[in-house]
Amino acid sequence: MGKKVLILSGSPRKGGNSDLLCDEFMRGAMESGNEVEKIRVASKKIAPCSACYYCKNSGECVHKDDMAEILQKMIDADVLVLASPVYFYSINAQLKAVIDRTVARWLEVKNKEFYYIATMADESLSSAKTTIDCFRGYADCVEGAVERGIIIGNGVYESGTIKDTPVMNKAYEMGRNV
Fold it and tell me: Which CATH superfamily is domain 4-176 in?
């Protein structure tokens, strides 16, 4: 029986480098019989957390936007794929808003397999360290989280330049092995 895989693509560019890696991961995971959904978080309306703690007793956020649906999908998934371009050595704001907004029901996000995808213009793989650490920081707050894989597309800046790199096949194969 396949797993429920949710890919959260933080790329603000549809067809951007990290988004393309998400597509390859998705293709591999689907071919292996998994139920896969990719959400481009930049195309959703997601307000940042305002730390009002309205959610504390109800589990509902004061912001009425697309996050409630995304959070339910995160809770229901077996596998979470977090993908972001590297912005100043960290994840981008779109994906960070999603992570922060899980606070409404964060204890319900548990027992997940995690995969991380990062892309960057820099050639040095060490430049993705803080981004991966951000992903891991979130996973550290998820009960029963298990890290399964990391994909880093380095030396890619212009949209689509990832297509000509071996990391595309790595994303596909990692997806196939979910």
Answer: Flavodoxin domain (3.40.50.360)
